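Checklist before submission:
- one chain only
- standard amino acids only
- sequence pasted in full

Submission:
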Amino acid sequence: MRNAFADEITNLAIEDDRILLLSGDIGNRLFDKLKENKPSSFMNCGVAEANMIGVAAGLALSGLVPIVYTITPFITTRCLEQLRVDVAYHEAPVIIVGTGSGLSYASLGPTHHSLEDFAIFKAIPNIQVLAPWDPNSLRQILTYAIESGKPTYIRIGKKGEKNLVEEKKTPPIGRGYQLQSGKDICILAVGTISHEALSAIKKLKLDKLIPSLFLLHTVKPFAEMFIDHLLENYKHIIIVEEHSKKGGVAEDIAAYLTFKKKPKNSPNLVSMGTSDQFLSEVGSQNFARTFFNIDSDSIVKTTKTLFTEDKENGIRV
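Returned file contents:
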């Protein structure tokens, strides 16, 4: 996804003189094309992420469109005060892009994990939170973010993510995308964990079990109309996210269902996020996802359990 980000930012900056990329001293070769074609649109702020956010806020309030980019935990928890006061309070239209989100950097340990960013940004007013699921959706979401004129946090993966949906089919902010049609059971995948969900769907099909699969990139604002559709049409909703269960999308849906929606026949919600603990062991992203039971096999196991329970209760599956 970071290659798609670099390509798209280069194209956008060439077309729009307002766009500036601020880097926290990472991915310098990644942006060679931008530096060659539009050197005035690139700024390396060094390993000074909090200062970079302050610079970006000033640029945004001057009428420019700054996009800040570095590894996710370094652009979120390290910069929290500047994000809250300089960007959000002033509604400065800064676009914050965190690469290597979730467990992408599992091999580097907890310092490089990012499993609380949704929770942090949802609690700060004025910032929208987006989690594209593939390179194509990232390209479109960058355009959405720029056009919105709002402070925006975008969490992306690292590298190697395959496209799941054509770019032009990426829904607008607040909408989801149905990748697989099924009945009774729905899997809702948030961001790049969608690849695990799709893998699970393929495994379930071998046993002739076909749940619906929806992809979601909008974490904030709450995608009310889209979530209403799921709540009204499915008996079980499995929410998969590479984020802590605390402060994640599943928690938002549960709160919405409890305090506002209250349908007569409430669906069963299943939260598949990371547990309330640090992962001190190092390994691949697949290793880390398996540890937290958010890998494709865990999704298969959870879904099969629901199908089995429905069958035992006399519900045709």
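Reviewer check: Residues 167-312 form a domain with the Rossmann fold fold (CATH 3.40.50.920).
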